[in-house]
Amino acid sequence: MKNKKFFSIILTTVILFFYTSAFCFDQEVFLQDFLWDKVSNLSVSQRPKIILVLGGGGARGFAHIGVLKALREANIHIDMVVGTSMGALVGALYCAGVPVEKIEDISEKTKWEDITNMGYISLFKMLVAEKLLSTERLETYVRKNIGDLQFSQLDIPFVCVATDITTGEKIILKEGNVAVAARASATIPGVFAPVEYSQRYLVDGGLVENIPVSAAKLFDPDVVITVAVSADITKNQFNNVFSTLFQAIYIQGQKSDEMNLSMSDVVIKPRVGDISAVNLNRAKDCIDAGFIAGKESISKIKEVIIKKTYEKNIQ
User: Fold this and answer.
1) β-strand 266-268 against 223-227: which pairing, if any?
2) What are phi and psi of 144, to 5 degrees?
3) Is 114 a residue of the active site?
4) For the whole model, what pTM was predicted?
5) Gap between the Cα atoms of 315 and 300, Å rounded
6) What angle do CA 8, 14, 20 make, to 5 degrees?
7) Percentage of the chain surpassing pLDDT 70?
8) Which of 74, 193, 202, 228 lies 20 to 30 angstroms, CA to CA, from 39?
9) Strand partners, 53
């Protein structure tokens, strides 16, 4: 029955296409709008499974918020989010049901002292006593906004990627406490102490998969939409420990990023390459860039979803 209904939609669309060809307006846009109206109203079982991948990039990851705003505005339903580092933090908040406007507001107010114990005393201890800084405040920050949620309690399924600093393994976190997992995924190694999680010591997932498309593929998506907030590494400055560590992570992950992007159905690249990963005060610029890039990608996203819907319903 569902196949007949979908073929009926396709037939109607073809007839309308030829009928309207004499008129002076964009038939391609008309067709897409018509089909999208039908596709967006299908049941979950008839729609393709869409996974949104949010890559790491420090402060540039605030662009993910703008992309989420654009997707919501276009009524594009996301079935799962997979994130690394800042992508994990934004993804955790979004999947917990925090309104995008609130995520935007708290992001624009975030400072390093809100999410780390960075200060003169802590830095002195790190240099003299070799005591790494802590990201406990980051975990508290996430808990403050989503509560003490477990993965199973999220509004939208969520997965994040971290690195086992002991073995070098990629760890896919999908069970347990969300705030702890997001914190682990975003803990920069070398400066901040690893996060103990399920008898492992975890650090930033960007070491093993900064744009976690292969992780997303493990969950059988029909459509993968990837947001990449990579920097132009040739323009990065190395005037502090953080920028140097981020640069090392980006260099290590370049080939992996290229492979992951090639496995995506749609890649969104906000224009944030000139923004430093540590520059949290550029949050609004990043969000705006994400919204613009997201809007520019909506037509392509709809095209892919319509195609995948057709394929799903003729099998």
Assistant:
1) parallel
2) -60, -30
3) no
4) 0.87
5) 23
6) 130
7) 79
8) 228
9) 82, 226
